[in-house]
Amino acid sequence: MSLLSKLKQKSYQIAIISVVLAIILGFWKPHVLIEGIQRACLYAVIALPMALILGIVGIINLAHGDFMMLGAYFAYFLNVYTGMDPLLAIFPALFAFFLIGIVSYKAIIKYVLGAPELNQLLLTFGLAMIMEQLANLFWTSRPIKLSLNYVSSSATIGSFTFGTYEFVYIGAAIIVLAGLLLFLKRTSTGQAALAVGQNPRGAKLVGIHVDRTYLLIFSLSIALVGAIGAIFMTRHSIFPLVGAPFTMKSFCLIAMAGIGNLLGILWCSLILGLAENFVLSFRGYAGWADILFFALIVLVIMIRSRQRQVK
Amino acid sequence: MRISRYLLYIVILIFLLTLPIYTGVYLLNVIDIILIYIALALSWDMLLRSGQISFGIAGLFGVGGYAAVLFHLKLGISPLISILMGGLAAAVLAWLVGMAVLQLRGMYFAIVTLALAEIFRVIIRNLPDLTGGPEGTVLSSAIFAGSSTRTYWLVLAGAIVSIIASEFFRRTRIHFAITSIRNDEIVARSSGIDVFKYLVFIFVITSAIQGMTGGAYAHIYGFVSPEGSFSVDFTLLPIAMALLGGMHLTWGPVLGAVLLGAVSELLKLYIPYGHLLVYGVIIVITILFFPQGILGTLGQRLKKTDTG
Amino acid sequence: MVVLKTENLSRYFGGLMALNRVSMEFRKDEILGIIGPNGAGKTTFINVVAGIYLPTEGKIFFNGRQISDLPAHKRCRLGIGRTFQLVRPLQGLSLLENVMVGALFGNGLRQREARKKAEEWCEFLELSDITRDITRMTALEVKKMEIAHALAAEPKLLFLDEVMAGLNSDETKEMIDLVRKIHSRGIVIGIVEHVMRVIRELTDRVVVLDWGEIIAQGPYEEVSNDPKVIAAYLGEEA
Questions:
Q1: Mutate to test the interface with B, among A122, A239, A285, A291 (most CBs of B within 10 A)
Q2: What is the mean pLDDT of residues C45-68?
């Protein structure tokens, strides 16, 4: 019993710390606060689908960020050939990547579900390489960017200006998180998925179709990540390797929050996003921002190993 | 029986040592690359035998390369010794990472190693005075003044060291420890095996090999850079080679390195962009259909006909 | 003389209390039985004593020395051995090599000596054709290999976790004789069993666990007539 209350305190501690830090930043470096929150939401919205797959299907997908990259290219070419605005491309992307998810699951992922973690890691690593190299082959490594005028919109409060377009990430994060939580807790399919995640054999005994659940969750996750690629494309230049860092950062967030803790991912993204932007704000040290996630994940792993009573 | 075996080894060794006499420079360069990949593929496999995957080959390779070059340039250490220092640097890094992360193993360890290459690229770009920044650092001359024979002997020595290390891991008690750990950690611990210590040890040794190989590579080509020294090639190819040739064996990764190393040269000529695709496909297909690789599947078939 | 003593040993998993203030003694020259309905905590007890889990509360003493914080591999080297309920032979090693693992690491022997020791223990347990592949063994042979593996580490205290499960009547008799033979070597034995005949024939004393607590202790005849024990088992059947 005492362990439970300790745990509760820790997650509240994290939330309190991030809120306090946010307030301090708000007064000291407001740019960092705003941009940090925007960046945090980008990370969160990419990490959430990965957390879904890891928590329910139990598979680690090292090609996760590369699906986002494909989504970005998808939106780009849709724009080039049909003039469709990438934000609208979210909808065809959702559909297309849901199909891609189904195909990937049935053709490949299904076979390593029962296999040791090693096989899953190697297989998804191979997949990631294939996707990155295909992109390289078709579209070369030259970065491409769309110039859309609404992307540079900004607002001014008092003496400082900030970009307002990036709030779309905050919107996306809230929609995705709320949507996922509602789906998992309120719908019968979602609840079945949660049951499968906790105890696949038990779920099967109760009559839940485990394989179909895995298929649904996996495809849903890929659909989300593909659609996010479309949003990402509006603001960033894309190239074949653009997705890879997001895979690692997503994993860092999942490790920090704990597998199965979707809300925790939001708080942890906040910490990472704010920390990165904080470092970025110092002219001479901006380049070091990309190491933060590594330091965080190593720290988290070291703390977790201490905590583990089961040796 | 034993004597004729050793005689065979000696004959092969003499043949290998005198190879430069009857092969042209181009072919020798290709063989150099194959030998480098033998070392990388074997060292990766040695860690795999314990049940852990490292995606950090490129990271440790690059760290070894930079360490070797910097020790040579900044401290005037001779190229050969600096290559050893490269191995040492990689070993220290592996020790730090291993101590921090190997308690949790599995995917946590694998993904941390995956991030290593990226991390060091960032560090190197941010310390331009020390490392030469994004453009990298060029050495005024390659090791052995570019002599292709001596270069070949160097990488041959590296490959032989890796093969000896792999066999050492297979014939001593380390084999028993590694196999137990891979199968079932709880059983291993209950048998008296200090799992954590063994894993850190193996990670450090295999990383040292990868670091030394990186140091040799840097001195041979006379050049280190964030993109080139930490290229994903150095992680992707060894993994594909070890899986294709047959994991958990000494000669499996060697076979894979020979096959895919030769193929890589051809591929680079015909498909300059994205030839790495082939290796990704090989990994996916081997994991799905032939997890034992060539030698492993052959070995199983032989066993079946034995008892059949 | 007390070889192993646990003092108020408790182990929680989250909110679940798997062991609750278990205080037990294992005396020299004794075969102690540990019985109880499914989920009573018998295997958890072995896991905590062997070091796979650390105790949440309480202490463990082995030959007078406190070992509550020692990692599992050190406890094995000190002389605590155990078998596993679901035997998982080590793939990639032959039968003999599986047994050798215990000798190499539990006992710290060199390969040649370890091989000899392993051969001796296999002979002791009447295991033949020991260089063969582990994929073709009978259930009895698998169990014997498991026990040989544990014995190769030269334990002073050996826990046998449901070694009789799945054996027919003749095999059970053979195993009972083997356990006596092991005991005659001076090894203290803790035997977890569901097969009551085994407990009746082999043990000097029995400890009964239910819901992680000791509900009865004593010789088998006493314990098997204890109404609390009967209720616990009947509760399981219901």
A1: A122
A2: 92
